[in-house]
Design goal:
The protein is an alpha+beta fold. Helices cover 32% and strands 24% of the residues. The strands form five sheets. Strands 16-13-15-14-18-19-17-20 form an eight-stranded antiparallel β-sheet, sandwiched between helices. A five-stranded antiparallel β-sheet has the order 6-7-11-9-10. A hairpin with a 4-residue loop joins β6 and β7. The two termini are 31 Å apart. 45% of the residues are buried. The N terminus is likely disordered.
């Protein structure tokens, strides 16, 4: 077990740069036993414990002034079961490494989000998701979990073993224990054909139900200050593979989506009045394209331009009203928004605190360039989202508290009762969990 290189604990910052923590000490356990010992030691020292992933959450969900557990030595695949079609992976494994390793084995997750820098435990514990008509979040693909609980013991759960823990811990917010391994359902590697094309905002909304019904994975980006969107449909394909060409891929995914976009955001931050004009140009820069590749190369994309994000899940049938209100709000305000609004969907699932728990959901994500004031925009957006019974993503900026969540989640009390049982002394508590789950 080691602390940071200097032997001292340093300052921890998240990816978006909006959360800073100064833990009393940092621990990098090399085994589940070492992690359990660190939790027991923290209890003896009267310190709280939090595990961090790659810091892709914009909330302070992983922040602590106690013991910070870094899981980077708990990585790699433990087992592949081809009869059950599952893979068991250590909690600190980045999704990027899991996707590559599975592809080499001729396997894949069914669905995934668009960023793959996160650790598997960080991504699932906060409810990271992609878009899908039938296929749900990454956590909904979990078949088993191993976690170290507050007393330092190791608990395993699945639909058959400790099912009440399994129902909650798949999206456990770090409140029930520290996840050490995850068993995912996998399937044979398949191909997806992606079709990306611009479409007017009003047309996407009027045809949304049809676009959703006709495609396995539908999503779109709306560019504020314009009536333009860019749509993306991903559907399974018999092949052949037709990946994006290297030069085209570099030009569209790196030069336009990261390089030029970064510069446009710098310009917009320095001179906000230019943003609507930049938005009109940006929204027309990406032309239609179609390509076919293995899942992670279609679902995920590099995100080098740093931002801060708020995302809410609303009932799927409320999406049209939510977006029209959001557009009207931006149009009549003096806000200048340089980042597109991302819209995705997920089917209802059975995870206690999943944003799609018990209801078919649509996700609306608003972003601001890192270093730009975001409060006014996010506050106005949040007012619209909450009016439609929105549920905020656990890892993204929001101002909701226990009272709100007790209303928003029919099974909220089930989760807090389980937390009382597994962590009665609140070893895994921090300010964020106190706000969202209560003391």
């Amino acid at each position: 077990m080691s602390t940071t290189a200097s032997g001292q604990s340093g300052t921890w910052r998240n990816w978006g740069g909006n959360v800073v923590a100064r833990p009393a000490r940092e621990v990098t356990p090399a085994s589940v036993e070492e992690l359990a010992a660190a939790v027991r030691q923290a209890a003896e020292d009267g310190l709280k414990v939090k595990a961090v992933g790659t810091g892709h959450s914009f909330t302070a969900i992983a922040a602590t002034d106690g013991v910070l557990i870094r899981p980077q030595l708990l990585t790699g695949i433990r087992a592949i079961d081809r009869d059950a079609m599952t893979v068991t992976v250590e909690a600190g494994t980045p999704l990027k490494r899991l996707n590559l390793a599975l592809a080499r084995e001729g396997l894949s997750l069914t669905n995934m989000g668009d960023i793959m820098e996160q650790t598997v435990s960080g991504a699932t514990s906060t409810g990271t998701h992609g878009t899908g008509r039938e296929s749900a979040s990454i956590a909904a693909q979990i078949r088993g979990l191993e976690l170290v609980t507050a007393d330092g013991s190791v608990l395993t759960c699945s639909e058959k073993e400790n099912p009440e823990v399994f129902a909650a811990a798949r999206i456990g917010l770090g409140a029930l224990g520290i996840v050490t391994a995850i068993t995912f359902a996998v399937e044979p590697l398949f191909l997806l054909t992606a079709r990306e094309e611009p479409m007017p905002f009003d047309r996407v909304l009027s045809e949304f139900d049809q676009l959703w019904a006709e495609n396995e994975h539908f999503e779109f980006y709306w560019f504020p200050h314009t009536g333009n969107t860019n749509t993306k449909r991903n559907n399974r394909s018999a092949g052949p593979e037709k990946p994006v060409g290297q030069l085209t891929g570099w030009f569209e995914d790196e030069f336009l989506s990261n390089g030029v976009f970064q510069v446009a955001n710098w310009v917009g931050r320095a001179a906000p009045a230019t943003i609507p004009a930049i938005a009109r140009i940006s929204s027309r820069a990406l032309s239609a394209r179609t390509y076919t590749d293995i899942p992670y190369k279609v679902f995920t994309s590099p995100r080098r331009v740093r931002f801060v994000e708020m995302e809410y899940a609303v009932p799927r049938e409320a999406l049209g009203d939510t977006l029209r209100e959001l557009k009207a709000m931006v149009d009549r305000s003096n806000l200048r928004v340089s980042f597109p609004v991302e819209v995705r969907t997920a089917p209802a699932d059975d995870i206690t605190l999943s944003t799609a728990s018990g209801r078919d959901s649509a996700y609306v994500a608003v972003h601001m360039f890192k270093g730009t004031p975001y409060q006014a925009y996010f506050t106005a957006a949040e007012r619209i989202f909450t009016a439609h019974e929105g549920r905020p993503h656990w890892g993204k900026v929001h101002t909701r508290d226990t009272a709100y969540f007790a209303e928003a989640y029919p099974r909220f009390a089930e989760f807090t009762a389980l937390r009382d049982r597994l962590d009665p002394d609140r070893r895994f508590q921090n300010d964020y969990l106190r706000r969202v789950l209560g003391a």
